[in-house]
Write the structure tokens for this entry.
Amino acid sequence: MYLVEDKAKRADVRTSEQLAGEGFMLATPIASPGGKWEHFPNSHISHHGKACCDIAHEWLIAYDFAQLNGGDILSGPRWMREHSAWGPSAWPIHWCEAVDAKIVDCGVHAAIAQEAFVARGLRAFRAQFIQRYSADAAASWRESWGKGDVSDHWIDGDAIYHEGNAVVVGDDHVKLWDGSAGWWINPRGEAGYGSLAAVRIDARVDSFATGLLWGNRRIPLNLWVEI
Amino acid sequence: MKIFVSGLYAGGNPQPGVGIVRSLRQGYPDATIVGVEYSNGVSGIHFDELDDLWIQRPWGELDLESYGQRVREVLDAGGLWISGSDLEAMWLASVFPDGHANLLAPPMAGIKRITKPVVEAASGLPVRIPTYLSTEHSDWDLHAFCRAQDWRVWLKGPYYDASRTPTWDAFTAVRNALSKVWSTEKLFLQAHVSGYEESVMLSAYQGELLGAVSMRKRDVTAEGKTWAGDVSDVPPEFLEPLRRMVRDTNWTGGGELEMVRDASDQLWLIEMNPRFPAWVHGATIAGHNLPALLVQAATGVRAQPVPAQSAEFTRVVLEVPVRADYPLPPLPEPFAGAVGHSMKHPSGLTALAARLHKIDPDMLDVALAPEGSPAPNAVSALPETYVADIGAQDFGAMQTPQYIYMESTAEALFASAAERARRLSTDDVEVISGYSIKTNPDKRLIKLALDNGFYAEAISLGEVQTALEVGFRPDQVILNGPGKWWPEGLMPRETMHAVFCDSVADLDRVVAAVEAGEMSARHIGIRIRTPNITSRFGIPLDSPTTFAKLIEAVKRLPTDSKFGVHFHMASSHVGVAQWWHLFESMLRWCRSIERLSGRTIEMLDMGGGWYPDDWHADETSKIAHAAELVRAMLPAVRQIASEPGKAMAQPSMALAMRVLEIQEHEDDMIEAVVDASIAEIPMHFWQPHRMVRQCGETGALQPIGRGKTYLMGRLCMEHDIIASNVQLPEGTRAGDLLIFCDAGGYDRSMSYVFGRG
């Protein structure tokens, strides 16, 4: 969860309040499922182009396989939440930093999980979520992200932007993995605190022209879909 | 309308009675609901929705015949009865084998078809049954089952209770406890299935399915019991076979199918209960009042509809007033010096289990195999070479306790391993075996290893010297382990076959020694400690930082030696499948090490701790596949070494002992003292041993089965019990010879001198 500009300007991280009115982000959600995150890109971990990031990446892949412990390869990489708690991350972030960090945000969790799923031989895609919380939750997160001197652009009113993964489990069925929570998101579609308001699956493949089936819903690809 | 509801225990692992009562009250506000219990220590009797109580004495005290008659009178008088207890439902089925129009519980024929673990009645459902094994099989077979399931197993009784048994000693302890509590030796082991737990609850009357709902657990207690869940309709692909099952079993009453959904979406049936589950009112909250549907079907009186309040439910803890006419009984005093007051079954269900056995010895048997299948055999057959080797001994002149060298067994094992290594070798990749000296440093075994083309795998310079004394050349020695520099001054100057470093510090010392000309090896490598498996050995890979240190260390290894990687984990400890996953995981680490260090791996050394049966029986295909995998993933590897120490040594010796004394106690329990002890058989706690008695009169070998005898060692140590639950053959007396096979591995090498004079 970061702005594209954040990748290149780590030292210039500002809060949404600071950024408001600069045309940097929308002050209010637009009338679409994606809200102010309508054209938001998935988080992307950078590579230093050196051994430090090569080692981190190789370690990640081998470590994930070791953690499977003989279990099903469709098991979620629960170890990531144990390895690094969810919290503010400053962007850009490189593999050597992301894999070693004790606290990372959902963009890091999702990017790492994506590497792990694909290395296992699974078809997996990045997924973006909008979730409903509360004003109190938003205030608490703004406080934490502010103390971490990290942008809180992922919060908007009582909604938040979140990242995860869509893992193909059948011909065109997917499960949505929330690596920061360490669980598969419930496709029943409850409303209320913590529920999923919208989802976008980032999959640039032709084989799912009709979208992917999540629970009883068919999710067209690369579009925000209201839940 | 008068409805009797039992199963009112409402603790952390509650019965469904209170939930049934709450649901019935919503469906039939004017009904008279009578709570039935067998103890006034059951908290649910104080629930204020109960109009009346019918408290019986605990099951152990009840006169079942007259109580059955009273229940019949209640039913004949128009009362309805919904049972909230499995065992009570079974007892009621024994009283009313063909049911009763007002008894809203399943008939005996139906109950018998849902017996664990096969749950035969559910065979049409889209579920699978986790693999299982009756504990009536021999300990040898039970141990093999646990290894095959990676020790992720549950030991279960036929009614309640299940315990994870991750080790052999845990298994034997739980087996003793469960057998005692539930008055049966007929337990079973079942493989654990990892996944999300969900249930289907049903309500049926005389073979017609009235309703069913699905529930997924969303919060659980420490015991894994439901604390919160979401409720949804049962999908058609489940509902239709469920309807057929209800019809086939002529089911009446509630029922619950407890399942686990694994990561690939497969449902595994754990068990079916002949009653509503404790979360029954959670379904009512979601608009599915199944107890009311049941009463409606039985009486024709329409239940008041209850709208769904939520598709999800959760529990809260509430304090309620205690009824004045049933004051709380005092808490039993803890046993002197003990902690806690637990009275796990206040209504005496365990006593009911014992009584049901007497009513019908087969009523509660676990269902393990289709009819006609061979019966489990509690006695393991001895391999022919065992019989020959034991038969070749002159026991008359033998001082006991005495280890017996099983010569033909050992020769056959080493020859077989050597032949397999030759068979798996190709022009490009040689497969070799290393005999792990620590497993049993008996020189006869080391010599056999030498004669069969094994390398000698040593963990100390003392072991290296032993190998050299037997005839190994230094270039046939693999030196390993954290103590490879001990004792000082014995490091060979000649070139060894391989040296593996156990830590970065060890690696630096090896590098320095090689540079100084103090040691030499064709292969110098590292032992890696794969994550997620507890081990004190090897270089850790737990974090990118430690991994980076390892990569830097590998770059320091001498370039004029070939690079090797060693991986070791006891297969018998982690289980067979998990070992193979670790192996594949290790290959991935190796591939990463190659990429990052620039060093290619030419020797791969994989240990170990294989149980003999796992290694020798039908493993060729796996090992061949492993060799193929190595070739594919690490094409520079030219030699694959394996170290089947235990697989070679364990069957190669037995322990002979004599009975010193036999003491018979009540209930067929026998305590026999032998002249051996845990000093000679220290692995008793961790593995079973096949045992025989040599008949004093005929000399014939008689296998020792399972029974109520304890074999106690000669030591004055409380835990010196070398076998429990055994059955000595008829006629066994003091002076008779017993032989514990499979004692040539760590039993032999870890034996100690305590109590030997």
Confidence is low (pLDDT under 50) at residues 1-30 of chain A. The interface with chain B takes residues 51-52, 54-56, 58-63, 65-76, 96, 99-100, 169-170, 186, 188, 190 of chain A (CB under 8 Å). The first helix of chain A runs from residue 4 to 8.
